[in-house]
Amino acid sequence: MGLATIAVIVLSAFLLGFLIYGKIISKTFLLSDKVETPACQINDGVDFIPTRPPILLGQHFAAISAAGPIIGPITAALWFGWGPALLWVVLGAIFIGAFHDFSSLVASIRHHARSVAEIVKDHVGGRAYLLFLIFIWLTLIYVIIAFTDLTARSFLDAEMGGATASSSAMYLILACLMGLALYRWKVPLWLATCIGFSLLVAIIWWGQYVPLRLPAFLQPALTWNVLILGYCFMASVLPMWLLLQPRGYLGGFFLYVALFGGLIGMLFGGFEIRYPIFTSFFNPQGQPLFPIMFVTIACGACSGFHGLVSSGTTSKQISKETHSRLVGYGGMLLEGVVALIALATVMMVIPGTGAKDPNIIFAQGLGKLISVFGISPQFAVSFGMLAFATFIFDTLDVTTRLGRYIFQELTGWQEGRVPRYVSTLVTLVIPLAYILSTTVQDPSVKTIPAWQRIWPVFGTANQLLAALTLLGITVWLRKTRHKAFWLTIIPTTFMFLITLSSLGLMISTWVKQMMLQGSIMMNLNSMIALVLLVLAILLIRESAVALQRRNS
């Protein structure tokens, strides 16, 4: 069986999901264009901006499609085979992930574009609100750590890292220029798109000849991490129109091209599947397929982070309620396509050969797929590496801005510029400290990269956030007697099942190690796993109490 057959089956499933199930949930939620959205009501030119659907879909898709739908599926496929991973991507995206993104977006719009945490506050209570904010903020911290380290290590790759770094820097400058062109110089969107995308292609080509490599005395790994966090700070405090919107739109357009090229390669490249459909019920660490595969593949199937994007930035830009189906539900299915292409890059690998790092596997595989257009192999791989970096950049800045929003909600410190700057700094301090502690070291000592250290907890926290978001939406729908309540029960239950099982597995592993070693020392991942488990149990209890009050 070739890649073309797989591509046709999966794309058909996604299309039917959008046309049938997407339409069902849209009708059930009673979307209406007669209701004025928060973007149109407030329209402050900074955070609340009515945005055309193509631009907003591009920004939303770029924000949610980070390294998650690449790293997770590739890692899971290497461990368990591509068959189980593909099934979870397809079924999870259609029936759980896309529903989660859509429902969190609609819920936020109908609560004046407030975050999921504030929705929980309205319908569950103030204590649950505080617990949920803490949970969200911890999850965002993990997202920033993982993707900052992944980006930095992409820039350090011996072959293409320098070209990727220079192209990425020029890409961000180009995004700012495009924002000025659209909102200050009033350049038509079609013209700005044509010029911007043409320049982006030139940037990819030029980056190969002007690689940006840092000298050894600057400790490149550390310096890149610090520079990327500095970018996150700037992106969080600048107006949306200047960087985040045009970067999201341009990045989304670039990623559309990457998706299109990857799909064309799958459909018409004649590539055969080399990697086994199934390899083992256990990963190299001895952890079982259930629940590990389901939390390893978070983005691409279901991701709690998407709910934060939907209720944090996207809901502030929706101009009509009916656009929620395209942006929320459709955006998640597009991410499922990203996961499909990521899995395709593994399917072409002959076991025991080639690279082992997911970012290199993706870049080389995507380069191979788009080589059907007759472009040079070096340009193709450079294109793949920049696509990978773009996926990450487009989430890092949104994540930092969301962290700023959540911290301001937590402290009630909202007005003025000072809270914006301070909240962003506080959000970035912990990632900086963690990265410093794992990056500054004796060069002769081999250590596990920061992103690999935290990925198991990151995936579980991300999925558990999705479960808690669905739980909050369920309480809202139940208390308001909305018939959409029945649609949330199964996905909520399933997400809790896999995430609580994963946390239990992590904690039991720590307990076994403690008993064998005779030590009560707990590593950071075990500590966070225990904190997340306690927070989840408390939030479930608060939700149950809220529903009992409603029924009494």
What can you tell me about this protein's structure?
With 552 residues, the protein is an all-alpha fold. The protein has a domain at 3-89 and 146-276 and 325-440. Helix content is 74%, strand content 0%. It contains 20 helices and no strands. It has helices at residues 3-28, 38-42, 53-64, 68-80, 82-109, 116-123, 126-155, 161-183, 189-207, 220-237, 244-268, 289-296, 304-312, 323-347, 358-370, 377-411, 417-439, 450-479, 485-517, 524-551. Helix 7 (126-155) packs across helix 10 (220-237) and helix 8 runs antiparallel to helix 9 (189-207). The chain is globular and about 65 Å long. The protein starts with a helix and ends with a helix. Mean pLDDT is 86; it is low at 441-445.
Please name the defining characteristics of this protein.
552 residues; mainly alpha
Write the layout of secondary structure elements.
Blueprint: H1 3-28, H2 38-42, H3 53-64, H4 68-80, H5 82-109, H6 116-123, H7 126-155, H8 161-183, H9 189-207, H10 220-237, H11 244-268, H12 289-296, H13 304-312, H14 323-347, H15 358-370, H16 377-411, H17 417-439, H18 450-479, H19 485-517, H20 524-551
What low-confidence regions span 5 or more consecutive residues with pLDDT below 50? 441-445
Q: Care to count the β-strands?
A: 0
| Secondary-structure element series | HHHHHHHHHHHHHHHHHHHH
Task: Give the overall form.
Answer: globular
pLDDT averaged over residues: 86
Major sheet details: none
Helix content: over 70%
Please identify the structural class as seen in this structure. Answer: mainly alpha
How many whole angstroms does the radius of gyration measure? 22 Å
Could you tell me the strand content as a percent range? under 5%
Number of helices: 20
Distance between the termini: 58 Å
